[in-house]
Amino acid sequence: MSQVAVAYPADRVSLREVGLRDGLQLVKNWPSTDEKREWLAREHAAGVRHFEVGSFLPASRMPQFADVRELVDAVSRLEGARSAALALNERGVADAFETEVDEIVCVISATEEHSQANMRRSRAEAIDLVRMAARMRDERGHKAIVNAGIAMAFGCSIAGEVDQAEVLRLAGACIEAGADIVGIADTVGFAGPRQVAELSAAMARLSGGAFIVHLHDTRGMGIANASAALDAGCRVLDGSLGGLGGCPFAPGATGNVVFEDLVFLCETKGFATGIDLDALAAARSVPKHAMPEEKFYGAIARAGLPRALDWRA
Amino acid sequence: MSQVAVAYPADRVSLREVGLRDGLQLVKNWPSTDEKREWLAREHAAGVRHFEVGSFLPASRMPQFADVRELVDAVSRLEGARSAALALNERGVADAFETEVDEIVCVISATEEHSQANMRRSRAEAIDLVRMAARMRDERGHKAIVNAGIAMAFGCSIAGEVDQAEVLRLAGACIEAGADIVGIADTVGFAGPRQVAELSAAMARLSGGAFIVHLHDTRGMGIANASAALDAGCRVLDGSLGGLGGCPFAPGATGNVVFEDLVFLCETKGFATGIDLDALAAARSVPKHAMPEEKFYGAIARAGLPRALDWRA
Hints:
The structure is a homodimer.
Chain A: H1 3-7, E1 14-17, H2 33-46, E2 50-55, H3 68-76, E3 82-86, H4 90-97, E4 103-109, H5 112-119, H6 123-140, E5 145-151, H7 164-176, E6 181-186, H8 193-207, E7 212-215, H9 222-231, E8 236-239, H10 259-268, H11 277-282, H12 285-290, H13 299-303
Helix pairs in contact in A: 2-3, 4-6, 7-8, 8-9, 9-10
């Protein structure tokens, strides 16, 4: 069985907690390494198994991710848990392979304009980085899977509309370059469920297996989009505890789709997550205590679970 | 063409603003009649056409609805707008027919337990009230359509699980009793999109035409459930500006599905609403100013519309 099929079995839903990476991308203060370990441990105890924990970048550029190696280690000590981390340049990829990280995430922009503005490199160069990561994986026999995430896949805050055919072309190029799995990201929360369903169905055909849908709740469509992705065959979804992680292009907007609400959605749709929702909601106290100035979202945490009936499908 | 087909054409989505009724059900303070008129006028100017404006009840019991007649009149002066109001007992129905209201809403609980607790009458008696309203409509040749709304249709905070067959039986009994249209309400926000899709599809078959889905966003599933209802053939959905309208069974929980976000959802799915979303979001200022202590929700109002592209499908 391929590493991807082990990490993301086809017969169940896998939910990736990206709060420790995407959720900390824009914050002014962040939890200490110990607090992050506690955060991971609490979510792991609730049943979460996939954690994106940071980015391999110089600490001078993104000090909130300076402890990425310690967190990769922390995840490796949690039974059945898998770590993922971003690597946005050659140095980051090389650094990542020096660790026991389970998944290395490279990012490709759907549009040339965003690629240049965000990463100061072309999309072709971004795909070259995927190729380099895949080659390093193969040469070293490293266990890490290479994840190529396509940002702005549903519309770009700079270039505007994004043709789905172009996203699929890029996804194909990433697979061709050796990516084990491809993700599509609604980076700025432009998508509606119809668009998500269409692109997800096409990604299911293209990948022939697992692919990731990464959604932001900027315009309130997060859970509806996740539902559409599940209906279209997606089995790997990202979220963040309390919806942590704002949007640089929409000040004051909510962040990633709320992990707790995403779990509730999956369970009502008949996808067992293995996650204890009460314990998950209680885990919010760790990042909330560490970042009292941040806003945490989520309806389950606010209203509680239905108690009068079994809400699991 | 039937009155229902005129009110709710089959070839488009109709969105019912229930904020002036459901949204004011639990508030301690409410807008003055003039402020409510301004609220209606602003939403009408934005393109909203369906307004539930109160309940025909003694002012001593629900003082926030004491001006229901004035609001029915106010709506009748807004071009193309239609008013609806609740009538929960014989007196209310009789009073309603003394006005020019366009739609009289009777409520039936999906469970006997909730029916007794909420209305101190049995479900059979609630259906008798529908029958009385339908008879009065026919005898007087009154233009009003009779709407039978089934509360707790997706689960009951008292009785727990609700069998879909039972909801369909009640819906059929309401139609048999003369209801022009039936609604299904997720009164306490228990539903997920799968359940909404299933019951909506069954309601589409049963009604052979229009039916209403009334959702609360208590557990964050509101927009996802609306999307599922649309996919299953529902073309009439309720919402409230800013998601006004809490839940008596989940303190602190959000209320109805947010009208603005519902409009965005519909448009991204290719259902033209005729509603100007910027103007709609701006109309929030009226109830917000009148009820500064109430919390208003909604992602579109917070993040704004996507500006880089045309988000309408």
